[in-house]
């Protein structure tokens, strides 16, 4: 608009010079001052904050990162600024995904990839994030508009597509593989995928992509009655994938689409979705910045403020071929993992002349998941009082089996019972 | 801006009529068309959604309440539209209060009273809600700007004041007493006060006001290291008030202000604050609309995704005089409460000719908090199989003591231990 007003003022100026009658000048000057007033009004429109080069720890009102960098001084995070190196893909920019995107944007995440094919409607206004003036825009465009105003430091990529179509899935895959943001990164081009979709098919598409790319992801969901939800961590090969343990409705052979009858819409609440987005991004931050414990599964039953947790091993009979490949790889890499864990533990133990680390500020412990029976080769004489080796010696590793992780046959049955208990709670 | 452009066009029109030279008309017409283009640009600026008369259950994209009214069809809420009758006071419009206000606004709450004396700074941008273009505005003004755009149906009242000053406290009290929004309401003019402040003095001011007005309130807080928080329900006379059990730092005689050293700012995260705001407003909705169970206390330890709960009885030695008065009133009203509960139970039981309610969809139960020993006067013969009276008969009530609720002397000690355990967790 500023450009238009400048042109207008130039035109008025040239008209002024060609006016013959001096009495007309007064009228024209009045018009000119009106336009100048307009120009001031337009200038008074919001100025966007400029990009910042480095995250400063300085405690001043003008520093958008002071309260985040304070996490370092508080002893929660070792190096907060690392967050600028990370890329997060958010699939589904609805009631959970949009709030998750805003939280990550305000935290100063490096890069966000946003996927959705839907448009903003007034019917979305009962959840946080979108505004009535964005009705009719695609959710991805509206999100980029809002997020880039909030924090211009974040690199935003918007993908207006449906990942359950062949074409959409291909674009989804290639965008995840793109490593131009951090070419040195191992694996895919993103550090974590957040699934914030509202249906089974889209979750299966995310599951397929992440299994193929060996990409860790966090699943999230909110119930149709709006009063419960969950988040779940999925590490291909290491934890159950989404196809390892299909949800009850699928397991019992009911087509999800038949559940959604004509004219019947699911309920939703900004509260439940805000809590789930908060838990999702909090676990994302713990995962990226290495503090606290990332929850393998966390439920939220809002009627009773009950938060169930559980853990799921992969299903060796999983129908997803890529999942089975990841399970094999995970089993094969076990000796390597154990050796790395052992080396890390030993590196942290005091050498004869080195200083003794007598505190454990980060509460880090290395847990042995091998069978401990008959392997008690701990050289406790070399350790200070109160410390013991949690891992067997390198020789003992030779005797360990390297089979695929054994899954109890009861796992799925247990899971169904737990889900039923949660649903009926 | 639209008004200014209209005036401009009128002026150009009158200039056009007084121009002598036809060659000048062309220049002027060019100017006119530029201004018309500007007018269109201004018109293209966001249109606000109009107010709606009634909350519709219609499932169309243009209905901002369809997903909330669906809570009725889902069997969660009996009458969602009642939310328009309720007034909520939010004290402190920061990281928790602003998000709580947005959630309630999107839920279509009747009236919101907002209290804060602070201004928006760039340093607030790591939490949800405020935008960089609002820097410099008071938080209350910025909140009203954003919230009225989101939902013009909500009546917003903005109080830019500090409730810990004498004048501020008086205005706070009189605004809570004002019943013009719903003159028929019992008690104060608000249904619930949400405390979203960040310091002890302000919490004590809210506590004082609510004890004086016998006003139920919900307390909320987030730790200085940003990774834990809590909400707590306070019903004057019935539960502990904020002065009944002062926080550890106050109990141990440390002045809170000495903890905040020069140049040291507390850490904060949009995740923790979003979760606390979500839990706070979810419990507000449960309290207002009568579904689920309102948590007396709910903590959030984000490092371990641990959610401690507890309950606190009032302290008969509380230093707050108004709290002691409320405790006396509560004790005196016990027979009345018991009789009402008994009447309610009996009204819900089947009469001889009436239909039998064999389900309990809302899972409502009346629990007897009197001593059951020796009072087994249940007329179980009058009840259908599987149902028993949970309350003694009216005659038995005569024998019950009406003393003040007995508080175990160990309560405070227990509470300190619990708090220590939570903090060290």
What keyword list fits this structure?
homodimer; 425 residues; alpha/beta; 7-stranded mixed beta sheet; 14 helices; 7 strands; 9% strand
Task: Give the low-confidence spans of chain A.
Answer: 371-409
N-to-C span of chain A: 57 Å
Element string of chain A (H = helix, E = strand): HHHEHEHEHEHEEHHHEHHHH
Structural class of chain A: alpha/beta
Radius of gyration of chain A: 28 Å
The profile of the biggest β sheet of chain A is: 7 strands, mixed
Tally of separate helices of chain A = 14
| Quaternary form | homodimer
Strand order of the largest sheet of chain A: 3-2-1-4-5-6-7
As a percent range, the share of strand residues of chain A is: 5-15%
Instruction: Work out the helicity level of chain A.
Output: 25-40%
Largest inter-chain contact set: A-B, 100 and 99 residues
GO molecular function, one term (chains A, B): UFM1 activating enzyme activity
Domain THIF-type NAD/FAD binding fold (chains A, B): 65-319
Keywords (chains A, B): ATP-binding, Metal-binding, Nucleotide-binding, Ubl conjugation pathway, Zinc
Family (chains A, B): Belongs to the ubiquitin-activating E1 family. UBA5 subfamily.
Write structural notes for this entry:
Chains A, B: This is Ubiquitin-like modifier-activating enzyme 5. Chains A, B: Residues 349-410 are annotated as: Disordered. Chains A, B: Residues 65-319 form the THIF-type NAD/FAD binding fold domain. Chains A, B: Keywords: ATP-binding, Metal-binding, Nucleotide-binding, Ubl conjugation pathway, Zinc. Chains A, B: GO terms for molecular function: ATP binding; metal ion binding; UFM1 activating enzyme activity. The structure is a homodimer of 425-residue chains. Chain A is of the alpha/beta class. Chain A is 40% helix and 9% strand. The first copy, chain A, contains 14 helices and 7 strands. The first copy, chain A, has helices at residues 2-18, 22-43, 66-73, 97-106, 139-150, 166-177, 200-213, 248-251, 256-259, 270-289, 321-332, 334-348, 394-398, 411-424; strands at residues 87-91, 111-116, 155-160, 192-195, 217-222, 228-234, 297-301. In chain A, strands 3-2-1-4-5-6-7 form a 7-stranded mixed sheet, sandwiched between helices. Chain A is elongated, with a radius of gyration of 28 Å. In chain A, 38% of the residues are buried.
């Amino acid at each position: 608009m500023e450009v238009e007003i400048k042109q207008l003022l130039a035109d008025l100026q040239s008209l002024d010079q060609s006016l013959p009658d001096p009495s007309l000048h007064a009228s024209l000057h009045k018009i000119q001052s009106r336009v100048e007033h307009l120009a001031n009004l337009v200038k008074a429109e919001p100025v966007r904050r400029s990009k910042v080069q480095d995250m400063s720890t300085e405690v001043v009102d003008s520093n958008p990162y002071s309260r985040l960098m304070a996490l370092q001084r508080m002893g929660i995070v070792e190096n907060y600024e690392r967050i600028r190196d990370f890329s997060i893909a958010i699939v589904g920019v609805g009631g959970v995904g949009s709030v998750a995107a805003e939280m990550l944007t305000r935290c100063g995440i490096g890069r966000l990839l946003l996927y959705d094919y839907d448009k903003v409607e007034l019917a979305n206004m009962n959840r946080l994030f979108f505004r009535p003036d964005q009705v009719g825009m695609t959710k991805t465009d509206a999100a980029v508009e809002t997020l880039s105003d909030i924090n211009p430091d974040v690199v935003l990529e918007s993908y207006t597509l449906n990942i359950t179509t062949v074409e959409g899935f291909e674009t989804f895959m290639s965008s995840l593989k793109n490593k131009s943001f951090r070419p040195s990164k191992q694996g895919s081009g993103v550090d974590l995928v957040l699934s914030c979709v509202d249906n089974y098919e889209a979750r299966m598409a995310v599951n397929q992509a992440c299994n193929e790319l060996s990409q860790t992801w966090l699943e999230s969901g909110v119930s149709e009655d709006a009063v419960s939800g969950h988040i779940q961590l999925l590490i291909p090969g290491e934890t159950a994938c989404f196809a390892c343990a299909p949800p009850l409705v699928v397991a019992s052979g009911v087509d999800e689409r038949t559940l959604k009858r004509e004219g019947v819409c699911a309920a939703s609440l900004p509260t439940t979705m805000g809590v789930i987005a908060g838990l999702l991004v909090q676990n994302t931050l713990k995962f990226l910045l290495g503090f606290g414990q990332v929850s393998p599964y966390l439920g939220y039953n809002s009627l009773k403020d009950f938060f169930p947790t559980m853990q799921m091993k992969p299903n060796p009979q999983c129908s997803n071929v890529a999942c089975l490949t990841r399970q094999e790889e995970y089993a094969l890499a076990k000796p390597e993992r154990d050796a790395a864990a052992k080396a890390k533990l030993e590196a942290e133990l005091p050498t004869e002349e080195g200083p003794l680390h007598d505190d454990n500020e980060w509460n880090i412990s290395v847990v042995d998941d091998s069978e401990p029976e008959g392997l008690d080769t701990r050289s406790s004489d070399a350790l200070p009082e109160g410390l013991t080796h949690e891992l067997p010696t390198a020789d003992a590793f030779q005797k360990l089996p390297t089979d695929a992780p054994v899954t109890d046959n009861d796992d799925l049955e247990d899971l169904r019972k737990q889900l039923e208990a949660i649903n009926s709670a």
